[in-house]
Input
Amino acid sequence: MELYTTDIAKSDYDNSHEDSTAVGILRSHQPAVLTNYSPRSTAADGNCCYRAVSMGLYGSQEHHRHVRLLTAVEFLTHPEFYDVHNAQYCGPADHHVLGASSYQQLTDDVCSDGGYAEMMHLYAISAAMGVPIESYMPPDRLLTAHPFSRVVVGRGVRSGASAAFALMWTTASKRGTEPFRPDHFVLLAPRDTIQQTVSVSDSEHEEPDVAEFASCIEKDTDTTPDGTEGHDDDEGDDDEQLIQDVDSVSDDDEDVKVLAADGMLPLPEGDWLPTTAIVNLLRNPPAEFFHSRVPYGLKSSVYCVVNNQDNVNRVAAGRRRAFDDDCGAWNAHGSRITKYPYLNNDDGTMHRIHIHAGQYCEERKVDGVRKYLPIDPQPSAERVTTIVRYYVTCKADPSFKKRATWFAPESMTPSSTAAAVIEYMGQQPAAQLHGNAKKATAEPYIRTPAATMDQVDKGVSFAQPKAVYNDFLSDDIDFADAPRNLQSVQDKKRYKQGTARGTNTHRLNFADEILHVSNIHIAMHRNNATSY
Output
């Protein structure tokens, strides 16, 4: 056991190389992190977490078994900190959010070479090695922090101490257009500690150390065993840099410009798609760009095709359509919907026609006056395609616009796929705070998906908002589908209670109450007077 009570000399990172998969994920999710940090590759053999910790502490992966052994000893000697079913449990208070496995499973994993690690293991590693650890999970939503992004402070480690190093949750292989599902760890090494560089531009700002990693990411507050939360009150100027301009990233070896979210295509010449192109996409949605929802990430002059069946169902139920995305608030009051028929010409082109007095017409101007001339003969229904379009502008920057296009019901056939083409015109602005936000430190506003709010609406009918919110975080769902925050669930509960009381019920203020009592007194006086 002498090895495990002796300090291990730290080497540099010269023998490590940058993890290209992690770099790609950061470019898509939060490119600002790459300015000051380099994800260092670890072997994907089930020991990646302990290898990353070994590299962070000693500069080399080779001591990962040393880290695992000390962590296993910590687990076995202090079960009350890691067994959430233990009557004396005193570990992380938000273990339901962390999705902790059973103590037996956690112990089996830490005691087995190649056994995977989860968040509860990070707390044990922190305790075993005696240092705080920065845990970083790339956000699935634009600038929305994941609960796993936090400073992990293990048993006996001084709260408030600087993190010794930062670990990133990533994937071992390229994920393509699939949702980001982490299964691998790498070390996020400060660039000033390594000689190897990647294609990012030089920053004129001073590079932060690992303890200042929180200035590059939004992180959850760490929760101490007694359930209290520790907050970092220091606010720097980095908040405005959470989304970098694409010009701040060079493309020496690879094209690293973050112009589009995964699964989206650039608009041709930065203009709206032609109607014929949109109709072709709606009739034959391409599998590689046909999504269940709008992909998350930057959307500047791009488009995609999404499944529109949920909106068909919502309209049938008398509800509003919802085109969810992560672009913040849209100017709904200034939005508009148009519905126009298009005539399919024999040469494959289309042109817009009009319905006037129950007939398909061509529009003409005669002496400056619009006139509608009936088409003779009237085209058959098969030759007419009716398209519905929804236009809306961004509240933060009206020059950033969204257009959604889909077929009207009369142009759908039993074999048609309910699809919508979603286009974004202009440069997407940085995410903004909600208009009702009272704190400058609040997270940028991202609307919770409509389908999620439907589930919340059902949940708050039978449970308290906090329980409903925690259920979402503990379920095996994409984090992007979870409610934006607890406040959004509480607001739904209040709205539902208000609706239940009746929207026409007038709640009396103090003056109304006095007048009401006065009227009762007058009525009683009159009744008494007539009784004599």
Summary: The chain has three domains: 18-229, 265-425, 448-532. Confidence is low (pLDDT under 50) at residues 196-260. The chain is about 25% helix and 15% strand.
